[in-house]
Design a protein that fits this description.
Elements lengths: L6 H21 L18 H4 L16 E9 L5 E9 L5 H9 L4 H5 L11 E7 L4 E7 L7 H15 L7 E6 L2 E3 L1 E2 L5 E2 L1 E2 L16
Parallel strand pairs: 4-5
Antiparallel strand pairs: 1-2, 3-4, 5-6, 5-9, 7-8
Helix pairs in contact: 3-5
Length: 209
């Protein structure tokens, strides 16, 4: 069994070791303070006084590209009125333009007397431009329930708005994917409609200022 060294002897040895360490630090030129103290600025290395100027990268998101197009609403006279809408994309697309028509007049436009014969529950299921400038517009919702003059006005709105898209000259209609004939201003039903067939509803000439 190892004999335990007296506690006093251990304390003495620890003190001697600490004293030797202090003397060694002093001999190496390292100053030893009894308590913390503030350093003078002239004693701080230059680089530590300069704030970090690490490069930062700012990423900006470009604004979305939009195109101004015309959609046709109904004026108080019963004639169509062209209004401007901003739709996504550098070039107008048939679904984008007709989607703007389906959304109807703004509050400001409605307050100014503009309306629409297209029911609020109308759903644009598809719209594609085909050969010969004929666009096919597939509709759903309650638009198929329209009759009489309201139906003619709604069809006129779709025809004038669709043919405002470059390359489209006439429109064929579908209801939930089924091809249908539609009435024109004369009351006659046709498989493909164009602007000339709605001349009685065409926008009125703008009076010269």
């Amino acid at each position: 069994m190892r004999r335990r060294r007296p506690a006093r002897a251990v304390t003495v040895v620890a003190g001697v070791v600490a004293l030797v360490a202090v003397v060694a630090l002093a001999g190496c030129g390292v100053p030893v303070d009894r308590s913390p103290s503030a350093l003078s600025r002239k004693n701080i290395p230059f680089g530590l006084l300069q704030p970090s100027t690490g490069s930062t990268t700012t990423t900006s998101t470009p604004p979305p590209v939009e195109t101004s197009v015309a959609v046709f609403l109904l004026g108080s006279s019963g004639h169509l009125v062209a209004v401007s809408r901003a739709v996504p994309g550098a070039e107008p697309t048939l679904p984008g333009v007709l989607g703007a028509l389906v959304r109807g007049p703004t509050n400001t436009e409605a307050a100014g007397g503009l309306g629409t014969a297209v029911p609020a529950q109308t759903v644009l299921l598809g719209a594609v431009a085909g050969a010969g400038g004929v666009a096919t517009v597939n509709l759903g919702g309650t638009v198929g329930q329209l009759v009489g003059q309201a139906q003619i006005q709604a069809i006129a709105q779709f025809v004038f708005t669709a043919t405002a898209v470059p390359g489209v000259t006439s429109v064929a209609f579908e209801l939930s994917g089924q091809a249908v004939d539609v009435p024109v201003a004369s009351g006659q039903e046709v498989p493909v409609a164009n602007r000339a067939q709605f001349a009685a509803l065409a926008p009125l000439p703008v009076a010269a200022g």
